[in-house]
Amino acid sequence: MASNAAVPFWRAAGMTYITYSNICANLVRNCLKEPHKSEVLSREKVHFAFSVWKEGKPLKPVTRLDSPQE
């Protein structure tokens, strides 16, 4: 059954809310002036570790530092 409810514009554009939110956050970050811009961009980095599991036990974890994709 079709609904007459309004569809959010990000959904109508074929995006997820997370994608829309990331685009908005990048726009805000790029509009900031120094020194706030460098401070915010330094917090944008993501730290994570992943492990390959073999026979139910993790092997040596690998730590990475990545920037989010734009």
Structure described in brief:
By secondary structure, this protein is α+β, with helices and mostly antiparallel strands. The protein has helices at 9-12, 17-31, 36-43, and strands at residues 46-50, 53-54, 57-58, 62-66. The mean pLDDT is 78.
Element layout with pairings:
Layout lengths: L8 H4 L4 H15 L4 H8 L2 E5 L2 E2 L2 E2 L3 E5 L4
Antiparallel strand pairs: 1-4, 2-3
In DSSP terms (H or I, runs of 4 or more residues), the helix count works out at: 3
Mean of all residue-level pLDDT scores: 78
Radius of gyration: 19 Å
Order of helices and strands: HHHEEEE
Largest sheet: 2 strands, antiparallel
The structure class reads alpha+beta
- Percent of residues in beta strands: 15-25%
Query: What is the helix fraction of residues, given as a range?
Result: 25-40%
Features:
two-stranded antiparallel ribbon; 70 residues; two-stranded antiparallel sheet; alpha+beta; 3 helices; flat
Overview of the molecule:
By secondary structure, the protein is of the alpha+beta class. The strands form two sheets. It has a two-stranded antiparallel sheet. A hairpin with a 2-residue loop joins strand 2 and strand 3 (57-58). Helix content is 39%, strand content 20%. It starts with 8 loop residues before the first helix and ends with a strand. The protein is flat and about 50 Å long. The model has no long low-confidence stretch (mean pLDDT 78). The longest helix has 15 residues, at 17-31.
